[in-house]
Amino acid sequence: xxxxxxxxxxxxxxxxxxxxxxxxxxxxxxxxxxxxxxxxxxxxxxxxxxxxxxxxxxxxxxxxxxxxxxxxxxxxxxxxxxxxxxxxxxxxxxxxxxxxxxxxxxxxxxxxxxxxxxxxxxxxxxxxxxxxxxxxxxxxxxxxxxxxxxxxxxxxxxxxxxxxxxxxxxxxxxxxxxxxxxxxxxxxxxxxxxxxxxxxxxxxxxxxxxxxxxxxxxxxxxxxxxxx
Length: 228
What we know:
This protein is mostly helical and about 230 residues long. The chain has helices at about 15-30, 40-45, 50-65, 80-105, 110-130, 130-150, 155-175, 180-195, 200-225; strands spanning about 65-70, 75. About 70% of the residues lie in helices and about 5% in strands.
Protein backbone atom coordinates (compact mmCIF):
# COMPACT_ATOMS: atom_id res chain seq x y z
CA UNK A 1 0.00 0.00 0.00
CA UNK A 2 1.36 3.47 -0.93
CA UNK A 3 2.30 5.75 1.93
CA UNK A 4 0.80 9.25 1.47
CA UNK A 5 3.16 10.78 4.03
CA UNK A 6 6.85 11.60 3.80
CA UNK A 7 8.20 9.61 6.74
CA UNK A 8 11.34 11.10 8.29
CA UNK A 9 13.14 7.92 9.33
CA UNK A 10 15.86 9.58 11.39
CA UNK A 11 17.94 6.76 12.84
CA UNK A 12 18.70 8.82 15.93
CA UNK A 13 15.04 9.45 16.84
CA UNK A 14 12.78 7.04 18.75
CA UNK A 15 9.96 5.64 16.63
CA UNK A 16 7.34 7.61 18.57
CA UNK A 17 9.10 10.87 17.65
CA UNK A 18 9.37 9.86 13.99
CA UNK A 19 5.62 9.16 13.93
CA UNK A 20 4.85 12.43 15.73
CA UNK A 21 7.01 14.48 13.34
CA UNK A 22 5.47 12.75 10.32
CA UNK A 23 1.88 13.38 11.42
CA UNK A 24 2.63 16.94 12.49
CA UNK A 25 4.17 17.72 9.11
CA UNK A 26 1.18 16.13 7.35
CA UNK A 27 -1.15 18.44 9.29
CA UNK A 28 0.94 21.59 8.80
CA UNK A 29 1.21 21.04 5.04
CA UNK A 30 -2.43 20.04 4.56
CA UNK A 31 -1.85 16.37 3.70
CA UNK A 32 -4.10 15.70 6.67
CA UNK A 33 -6.88 18.21 6.21
CA UNK A 34 -8.77 20.23 8.85
CA UNK A 35 -11.65 18.14 10.18
CA UNK A 36 -10.18 14.86 8.94
CA UNK A 37 -10.55 11.96 11.38
CA UNK A 38 -7.38 10.32 12.65
CA UNK A 39 -8.06 6.60 12.76
CA UNK A 40 -5.34 4.81 14.72
CA UNK A 41 -5.64 1.54 12.79
CA UNK A 42 -5.61 3.31 9.41
CA UNK A 43 -2.61 5.50 10.29
CA UNK A 44 -0.69 2.59 11.80
CA UNK A 45 -1.22 0.65 8.56
CA UNK A 46 -0.14 3.60 6.41
CA UNK A 47 3.01 4.24 8.42
CA UNK A 48 3.84 0.60 9.04
CA UNK A 49 3.88 0.89 12.84
CA UNK A 50 1.81 -0.34 15.77
CA UNK A 51 -1.05 1.69 17.24
CA UNK A 52 0.94 2.69 20.33
CA UNK A 53 3.20 5.37 18.74
CA UNK A 54 0.18 6.62 16.76
CA UNK A 55 -1.79 7.04 20.00
CA UNK A 56 1.15 8.84 21.66
CA UNK A 57 1.59 11.15 18.67
CA UNK A 58 -2.11 12.06 18.62
CA UNK A 59 -1.93 12.91 22.33
CA UNK A 60 1.04 15.25 21.74
CA UNK A 61 -0.63 16.84 18.72
CA UNK A 62 -3.68 17.53 20.86
CA UNK A 63 -1.47 19.37 23.37
CA UNK A 64 -0.12 21.51 20.50
CA UNK A 65 -3.64 22.37 19.39
CA UNK A 66 -3.26 20.64 16.03
CA UNK A 67 -5.67 17.82 16.97
CA UNK A 68 -8.92 17.89 18.93
CA UNK A 69 -10.82 15.02 20.57
CA UNK A 70 -14.53 14.78 19.71
CA UNK A 71 -16.81 12.79 22.08
CA UNK A 72 -17.95 9.49 20.49
CA UNK A 73 -16.00 10.37 17.35
CA UNK A 74 -12.37 10.38 18.36
CA UNK A 75 -9.45 12.47 17.16
CA UNK A 76 -9.59 14.80 14.21
CA UNK A 77 -7.36 17.50 12.74
CA UNK A 78 -8.21 20.85 14.31
CA UNK A 79 -9.91 23.24 11.95
CA UNK A 80 -8.43 26.63 11.19
CA UNK A 81 -11.00 29.05 12.60
CA UNK A 82 -11.18 32.79 12.13
CA UNK A 83 -10.76 33.25 15.90
CA UNK A 84 -7.63 31.08 16.14
CA UNK A 85 -6.18 32.78 13.06
CA UNK A 86 -6.80 36.28 14.39
CA UNK A 87 -5.40 35.40 17.82
CA UNK A 88 -2.12 34.15 16.35
CA UNK A 89 -1.73 36.86 13.73
CA UNK A 90 -2.53 39.60 16.26
CA UNK A 91 0.55 38.55 18.22
CA UNK A 92 2.66 37.88 15.14
CA UNK A 93 1.81 41.31 13.69
CA UNK A 94 3.24 43.00 16.78
CA UNK A 95 6.32 40.76 16.86
CA UNK A 96 7.07 41.28 13.17
CA UNK A 97 6.72 45.05 13.47
CA UNK A 98 9.12 45.05 16.43
CA UNK A 99 11.51 42.76 14.55
CA UNK A 100 11.84 45.02 11.52
CA UNK A 101 12.19 48.13 13.69
CA UNK A 102 15.06 46.55 15.59
CA UNK A 103 16.55 45.22 12.35
CA UNK A 104 16.65 48.79 11.02
CA UNK A 105 18.80 49.74 14.01
CA UNK A 106 21.02 46.67 14.28
CA UNK A 107 21.39 44.82 10.99
CA UNK A 108 24.95 44.58 9.67
CA UNK A 109 26.05 44.94 6.06
CA UNK A 110 26.72 41.20 5.89
CA UNK A 111 23.23 40.46 7.20
CA UNK A 112 21.72 42.89 4.70
CA UNK A 113 23.39 40.88 1.97
CA UNK A 114 21.92 37.67 3.41
CA UNK A 115 18.49 39.29 3.46
CA UNK A 116 18.87 40.48 -0.13
CA UNK A 117 19.76 36.97 -1.25
CA UNK A 118 16.81 35.52 0.70
CA UNK A 119 14.45 37.99 -1.01
CA UNK A 120 15.82 37.02 -4.42
CA UNK A 121 15.52 33.31 -3.60
CA UNK A 122 11.91 33.75 -2.50
CA UNK A 123 11.15 35.67 -5.67
CA UNK A 124 12.72 32.92 -7.76
CA UNK A 125 10.86 30.00 -6.16
CA UNK A 126 7.56 31.91 -6.00
CA UNK A 127 7.69 32.36 -9.76
CA UNK A 128 8.98 28.97 -10.86
CA UNK A 129 7.95 26.44 -8.22
CA UNK A 130 4.56 24.79 -7.95
CA UNK A 131 5.49 23.20 -4.62
CA UNK A 132 3.98 25.20 -1.74
CA UNK A 133 6.41 23.55 0.71
CA UNK A 134 9.40 24.93 -1.19
CA UNK A 135 7.90 28.43 -1.28
CA UNK A 136 6.98 28.26 2.41
CA UNK A 137 10.55 27.30 3.34
CA UNK A 138 11.92 30.26 1.39
CA UNK A 139 9.43 32.54 3.14
CA UNK A 140 10.38 31.22 6.59
CA UNK A 141 14.10 31.60 5.81
CA UNK A 142 13.63 35.26 4.88
CA UNK A 143 11.70 36.11 8.04
CA UNK A 144 14.12 34.13 10.21
CA UNK A 145 16.99 36.32 9.01
CA UNK A 146 15.13 39.47 10.05
CA UNK A 147 14.40 38.15 13.53
CA UNK A 148 17.96 36.90 13.97
CA UNK A 149 19.43 40.31 13.08
CA UNK A 150 17.64 41.92 16.04
CA UNK A 151 20.00 40.10 18.41
CA UNK A 152 17.11 39.82 20.88
CA UNK A 153 16.98 36.24 22.17
CA UNK A 154 13.65 36.72 23.95
CA UNK A 155 12.06 38.00 20.76
CA UNK A 156 13.51 35.06 18.84
CA UNK A 157 12.05 32.68 21.42
CA UNK A 158 8.58 34.26 21.19
CA UNK A 159 8.60 34.05 17.39
CA UNK A 160 9.73 30.42 17.53
CA UNK A 161 6.89 29.60 19.93
CA UNK A 162 4.43 30.73 17.26
CA UNK A 163 6.31 29.23 14.35
CA UNK A 164 4.41 25.92 14.07
CA UNK A 165 0.97 27.52 13.98
CA UNK A 166 2.25 30.31 11.73
CA UNK A 167 3.60 27.71 9.31
CA UNK A 168 0.14 26.16 9.03
CA UNK A 169 -1.47 29.52 8.23
CA UNK A 170 1.41 30.51 5.96
CA UNK A 171 1.02 27.28 4.02
CA UNK A 172 -2.70 27.94 3.44
CA UNK A 173 -1.85 31.44 2.22
CA UNK A 174 0.95 30.32 -0.08
CA UNK A 175 -1.26 27.71 -1.74
CA UNK A 176 -3.19 30.67 -3.20
CA UNK A 177 -1.01 31.24 -6.27
CA UNK A 178 -2.78 34.51 -7.06
CA UNK A 179 -1.02 36.02 -4.02
CA UNK A 180 2.55 35.13 -4.98
CA UNK A 181 3.34 38.36 -6.79
CA UNK A 182 1.95 40.35 -3.86
CA UNK A 183 4.22 38.40 -1.52
CA UNK A 184 7.24 39.20 -3.66
CA UNK A 185 6.38 42.91 -3.59
CA UNK A 186 5.71 42.90 0.17
CA UNK A 187 9.04 41.25 0.90
CA UNK A 188 10.82 43.72 -1.35
CA UNK A 189 9.18 46.63 0.48
CA UNK A 190 10.26 45.23 3.86
CA UNK A 191 13.80 44.69 2.60
CA UNK A 192 14.11 48.18 1.09
CA UNK A 193 12.74 49.75 4.27
CA UNK A 194 15.41 47.99 6.31
CA UNK A 195 18.13 49.01 3.83
CA UNK A 196 17.01 52.63 4.29
CA UNK A 197 16.78 52.01 8.05
CA UNK A 198 13.32 53.57 7.97
CA UNK A 199 11.62 52.10 11.04
CA UNK A 200 8.15 53.55 10.41
CA UNK A 201 8.09 52.37 6.80
CA UNK A 202 9.38 48.92 7.79
CA UNK A 203 6.81 48.48 10.58
CA UNK A 204 4.02 49.59 8.27
CA UNK A 205 5.18 47.13 5.58
CA UNK A 206 5.37 44.26 8.10
CA UNK A 207 1.84 44.96 9.37
CA UNK A 208 0.42 45.15 5.83
CA UNK A 209 2.15 41.83 5.09
CA UNK A 210 0.30 40.16 7.98
CA UNK A 211 -2.99 41.96 7.25
CA UNK A 212 -2.98 40.61 3.70
CA UNK A 213 -2.34 37.07 4.96
CA UNK A 214 -5.24 37.36 7.39
CA UNK A 215 -7.62 38.64 4.70
CA UNK A 216 -6.67 35.89 2.24
CA UNK A 217 -6.86 33.03 4.75
CA UNK A 218 -10.20 34.17 6.16
CA UNK A 219 -11.57 34.25 2.62
CA UNK A 220 -10.37 30.67 2.12
CA UNK A 221 -11.83 29.57 5.48
CA UNK A 222 -15.23 30.96 4.52
CA UNK A 223 -15.09 29.27 1.13
CA UNK A 224 -14.31 25.94 2.79
CA UNK A 225 -17.09 26.39 5.34
CA UNK A 226 -19.61 26.92 2.55
CA UNK A 227 -18.60 23.57 1.07
CA UNK A 228 -19.25 21.71 4.33
